[in-house]
Amino acid sequence: MQRKTLIPLALTAAATLGATTLGVINAQSASAALTSNWYASAPYLMPFDNSPPDAIEVMNATGQKAFQLAFILAPNGGGCTPTWDGTRAVSADTDAANLISRIRANGGDVSVSIGGYGGTKLGQTCGTPAATAAAYQQVVTKYGLKAIDFDLEEPEYENAAAVHNELGAAQILQQNNPGLYVSVTTAGTAAGTGWFGQQMLNDAKSLGFTPNNYSIMPFDGGFNGASAQTSALEAFHGILMNTFGWDSATAYAHEGVSMMNGRSDAGEYFRQADFQTVLDYATGHHLARYTYWSVNRDRQCADPNQSTTSGTCSSVPQTAWEFTKYTARFAGATPPTSIPPTSNSPTPSTGACSAPAWSSSTAYTGGALVSYNGHTWKAQWWTQGETPGSASVWVDQGTCGGTGTTQPPTCPPAWSSSTAYNGGATVSYGGHKWTAKWWTQGDIPGNNSQGVWTDNGAC
């Protein structure tokens, strides 16, 4: 993520991160991992610079469960040991460990991002993929990580040997830490990504390395709102198909987007409506990731329309943590809202639709019932402006013009632990029909804490 104009405002760790004294968080003491959709939605948060917000406050206000802590770099004086921002040795850290413990105690988790814009990267100083991986393994082990992000940007981005070290390290970590969620984030252009981004993908292909997703950053490159961003994502989709020989669905399932809220470094503006449009694109095309830079900026500036880019506020009118609610929606959560959830029980019909008519301007939470074209529809997750019958967020509960109760659907194919399901897929399990809210594999219907499966009733 670009940081060239974001002013560091380092605060004391004691004031910002809490007063606990835990120094090491290993895999045994770490809380259970969240399902992958939360790591895919984790927005970036700098724990030491740019006036860090309290992560627990953000979690409670938005429903977001995971954060992407940034950044791990090589020491400013050189060497092959991991540090936070080039200055804080991971080996001696207690502050980030305290923060991670607090997030986990509140039911969440973190991913850690390496790289970012500027600074010296470990891929530049460690010399080999194995040495680079050994440095990152220290981070994974210390914090008991279930997810890690490789944010490949300048100046490393243009250094083929350094990028090769990073990709090789990511592959080694993936092999040595089964189940580790790995994302690769890189620059976006109107053409999808640039020449160096294509070379990075070519190198990954030659290594036989496939992360959970490749995400582009469609900002700081002459973008003008959401339409330019979704156009870039479509172009990147084509690049992924052409590079790896993937079909369209597979390419979307390995593609992600990382945005910037408010005013970008280049003076572009991405407002709430832009985030909603890209969210609709991401969920409609079953993208693997939807995130943004940064939670530190997810609050209104004293002058909400200031013409400068800040590291601590968005430079657009907003309420606090408004942009983070979009990432929570992508994960499938229901952000705090004044709209109460509607009962999930079958809809009695008395000759006419009893559920309120669907409205394109109304925001619906998961479980809400509406009527549209003579049918009752149930929302699987937060939605607004998506028409029942043409968007997978809505599940058809049957006609509502007869008498009696809407009949349950017939049983679709049985759920399989080895099958990867996209959002909207239906399965049967335990005599019930279930619909996936997002991509999933191995999550048992009715037995997963994050609710990837919606129970559509007995079949």
TrEMBL record:
Q: Where is the composition biased (Low complexity)?
A: 334-350
Q: Which residues form the signal peptide?
A: 1-32
Q: Where is this region: Disordered?
A: 333-352
**Presence of keyword Signal:** yes
- Keywords, ordered alphabetically: Hydrolase, Signal
Q: Does the keyword Mitochondrion apply?
A: no
Matching InterPro entries, A to Z? CBM5/12 (IPR003610), CBM_sf_5/12 (IPR036573), GH (IPR017853), GH18_Chitinase (IPR052750)
Q: Which CDD domains match?
A: ChiC_BD, GH18_PF-ChiA-like
Name assigned to this protein: Chitinase
Every Chitin-binding type-3 domain range: 355-397, 412-456
